[in-house]
Amino acid sequence: MTISMATELTFVLRHDDHVVLTSANYPEEVAFSLAAPPAPQPGAWRNYAAGAVVALREKHNVRRGLAGTLRGALPGGGLSSSASVILAYLHALAVVNDLTLEDWEYVRLVQRVENGYLGLQNGILDQATIVFGRANTLLHIDTQQRQVTALRGPAPSAYELLIAFSGQTRALVSSDYNNRVRARLDAFLAMDTNHDAPGHFISYLCRHESVYALKAAGARLDIGSIAAYHAAAARLRRAT
């Protein structure tokens, strides 16, 4: 569900390839070139802007920069503030570069920033809730099928929502969960085995962790060679 808090990015087009940002919440100015976004630095608020540039440039032509001022009331403690600010940067960069992106593309790009640039081992729920959320509406998000169903929520007068911020923040990159996932992946990659097939990692993980899965109906076709492809194609033809 949505809450009445947001991240606000006011921006204008720059006629060069630089991103220049100030913040009402942080004292220092951020400035970098689209062609050379800085590497992530622990605790730096520029990470989210730089990560948005890196992710967007992987598949899109991003040549024009922007100047902007960021402000927001979301504390960095569990209210999807990182997903919110990344989405703000992605939308701004899309506007100044005349890019039209679908909703699910924004969801994917935020995950790309968090997984690929920041090193967070997380999913898509935060950004999907922001992208598809509407006032007084609950969401059913199917992350496997990439489907979102809006459900009518209770009337605002029927409940009260209390959000308590402890005042303590933490870096998700160094959280126990993130470190545990990273350690398991590093240990698997250090083994003398075939790392190419994703199923091998799952098999390794099942031997060391309690693993939960969703059961999918239908046949599983493992296509790892031309012969396997032709066999799978023949099976699909017989099925139809």
The figure for the number of domains is 2
Q: What is the CA-CA span between the terminal residues?
A: 41 Å
CATH architecture term of the largest domain = 2-Layer Sandwich
CATH-assigned fold name of the largest domain: Ribosomal Protein S5, domain 2
Give the mean pLDDT: 84
- Helix/sheet category: alpha+beta
Helix share bin: 25-40%
Q: Report the sheet with the most strands, covering strand number, pairing sense and barrel closure.
A: 4 strands, mixed
- The CATH class of the largest domain: Alpha Beta
Residues in β-strands, percent: 15-25%
> Using only CA atoms, what is the Rg?
21 Å
- How do the SSEs run, as a string of H and E? EEEHEHHHEEHHH
Described by the principal axes of the CA atoms, the overall outline is globular
Query: How many alpha or pi helices?
Result: 7
**How many strands in all?**
6
Task: Fill in the keyword field for this structure.
alpha+beta, 15% strand, Ribosomal Protein S5, domain 2, 240 residues, 2 domains, four-stranded mixed sheet, 7 helices, single chain, globular, two-stranded antiparallel ribbon, 37% helix
Short description:
The protein is an alpha+beta fold and 240 residues long. The chain folds into two domains: 7-158, Ribosomal Protein S5, domain 2; 175-239, no CATH class. The chain is built from seven helices and six strands.
